[in-house]
Every structure is written in C-alpha cells, then in structure tokens.
Amino acid sequence: MTTRVEIWTDINCPFCYLGKARFEQALSGFEHRDDIEVVHRSFELDPALPATESGPVIPHIAAKYGIDVEQAAANERAIGAQAHALGLPYRTSGRDYGNSFDMHRLLHFALDQGRQDALLDALYAANFAEEAPAFADTERLVAVATGAGFDETAVRAVLADPHAYAEAVRQDEREAAQLGATGVPFFVFDGKYAVSGAQPTEVFTQALTTAWNDRPAPVVLAADDTTCGPDGCAV
Amino acid sequence: MTTRVEIWTDINCPFCYLGKARFEQALSGFEHRDDIEVVHRSFELDPALPATESGPVIPHIAAKYGIDVEQAAANERAIGAQAHALGLPYRTSGRDYGNSFDMHRLLHFALDQGRQDALLDALYAANFAEEAPAFADTERLVAVATGAGFDETAVRAVLADPHAYAEAVRQDEREAAQLGATGVPFFVFDGKYAVSGAQPTEVFTQALTTAWNDRPAPVVLAADDTTCGPDGCAV
User: Fold this and answer.
1) CA nearest A10: which of A1, A20, A2?
2) Domains in chain B: how many in total?
3) What's the predicted TM-score (pTM) here?
4) Which residue of A37, A227, B5, B66 lies most exposed, with the fewest beta carbons within 10 A?
C-alpha cells in the first residue's frame, strides 16, 4: 500500500515554496519514499486579482495590508533568509504579485502528463528566483513550461482555452474549504492526517511515519470465484 | 477529498477484462465520479512463462490444468458470452497465452504519462478481441502502444531496457501479496475496502458509495502560522 500526500499550494506563497523543500527533505530520508505519491492541489491566495495585471509585490503588500513599505520589504527579506537557509534561491527585492489561475490550470495539465512536480518547481523558480515577472504574461508562462520540458503546442492550447482544467482548480479549492484549510501550504496524508504550514522537516517525517503505519488491511466487501489466479480462472 | 481505486489486474485475465467494464459501468453512474481516481496495478498470473514464447490459450490451459481441450474451449466460450453480454468484443476461438511482464512495465510507463487506462484498454483489445497474437512480440506491443497514442521512441526505450519499471511491477505484486490477493481482478478503495472478482456492477456501486462515505476529516498533526492566506503571510 502506498501513502498519498496531497499538498495545497499557491505559486504566490513563499511558505509553500519553503514547505515543499522541507517536505522533500523529509521524504528523501524516509525509508518508504518509493511508496509515497505526491499530488499538488490548487489554492489561490488572491483569486480576485485581474489576470492581466501584475507588479512588484512589496508595495502591493504594503498597500493591501496597510503596513509601510519598509516593513513589507523586511518581511520579504526575512522569508528570503529562511529560503536561503534551505538552499533555495530567493530574490528578496524583486518578485511580483499576480493572478495564478492559469498557473494552476497548467499544473493540472502537468498532473495529467505525470510531471506535475517539475512544473511546480519551474513556476516557483520563475516567481521567487528569476528576474523576469512570472505573472500576467502568457509568453513567459509558455517559456517556463517549455523550459520544464512540456510540449509548447499543448501548453499553448491549455492557456488559450480558459475552460481547460478550470473546473479541476475550482474542485481543489472547494476541497480545501471542506478540509478547513484557510491558508497554504496544507498537507494531507492519505486523507487522514493534515499538516498546516511550512513546518520543520521533522514534523513531515513524523507525519509520513504516522500515515505509513496507519494503513490498515482493507475490509473485503465482496469476493467470489470470478477471478483468475495461478491455478487458472473459475468458469 | 477524492476516493482512489487501485485495481490489480493481468492482461491474461478475462475476468479482469470483464471486471474493468463492470466497474466502469458503476463509476459512470456514480454521482461523485469526477472525484474518483483509478490506478491499475500489476499482477502476473504466470510470471514463470518465458518472455519469448506464446501460443493458443485453449490447448495451453487444457495441458496445464489436465482438462480436455473441449472443456477448455467451452470455458473460453462461457467467458466470451459474459463479455458479449457486456458489449465487449471477445474472440472465443483465438487468444494466446504468454508472459505479460513487458506489458505491465509499459502500464507503469503509461501511468507516469497520465494515460494508463488507454493503454490497458488497448492491451485487453489486443489480447481478447484482435486476431494477431499479443504476447512475445515486441513489434506487436509497440504497435498496440502507439495505436493508443504513446510515443514510439519512448515505448521502444522502455521495452529495450529490462530494468525500466520492472521494480514498479514487482512492488505492485508484493503489495498484492501483503493485501492477501491471490487472484485478480482485485479492487481496493482508498486502501480501506476490497472487492475481489468481476463482481456485478451493483457491488462496485456499493463499494464506491461505502468508500466515499467513509472519508473522515483528517486529524491535524501540526499547524502554525507559517502559512499564507487571503490576509497575507505571517512573518
């Protein structure tokens, strides 16, 4: 029996970027890591932002939460220091804010391709580590996705059709609400255990261990002889 | 919360072919079908068969189980009649037996591509409905996979490397043994409920309902303020 970890995340969310790295540290040291399946789920921090607008995050945050720009910049530097401590690149002076809906649609496309993790890493790098703004720019998004190995024609087709994977994003967001997740990152293990926040690596190790050890033998609801086994098929 | 169904199967197994169709009938009528995830798992009925050998299944079964050829042919017709009742094509006179390990390796490759179901349907059709033998013929397997939309170069690379996805097949088989599955098809719902055999559609509907209704709220193991929400990120 595998254990399945679902991680609700937003590309805008620096704690999601940190949390992913800490979870992966725990996973890489976990004895049964080859039997752990990870799926990334969608959670937009600010779904009301217009899709065509973007701008520097520091003045945006300062204005949105009524703090001064110096405080917003200091907060960004504090998160950057935590990222650097994990070995993650982080430009503390430069990232943008923006609407992430198209990114989440692409993450569901990537899930269908079996390569969701590669795209999420590329999106995080584009937002937190690279100079060019990551939001409100279709060509930039195409470049990020193709840089992560996705087919350009397929990526453009997803981005050109606003319905493509839109319901999958909304479904993830409804599920987050049902689970009581009001912020991200939010980790759910086999639907049974949750961890909220960019917790220390040891917390993720403990959660993986707890979920792994709590995989009960399934209850057999029905069994008859319409099976084939080493001794053939009953007819 | 989605519900996850894992189905252990072999391409050699006619009850797996029937069981997949009956499960899919139940799924198509299930209210929450969009939140059900299906994964096919490997189970070889006869792993000791040489990979390079194949032949008509009826005399093979007659010899293997010490029944006469007429009885083996009658059994095959009886299974064919059940398939036809489900609308499934089935050539009762012609399928081959053979080693399915390479097929299972390709099913894991297809899982990584997010298109496992399409390949399994194509493999079942090749074995149960089409005239050309499906086993012990790499070119035939390449044709089946490319016919199902997979990239020929990638398929050939998997088939040429005997280690590719081999451990994933073995892992599925160990897990089946741990679960007590001695025959296939074997269906496991969220790791909690099992159905053995090509059961009637209603049994699968009931199992889906039982598993769906038994998705408890997860226990929160850890939560702190290292999250971002609609009101920003705590720093």
Assistant:
1) A20
2) 1
3) 0.76
4) B66
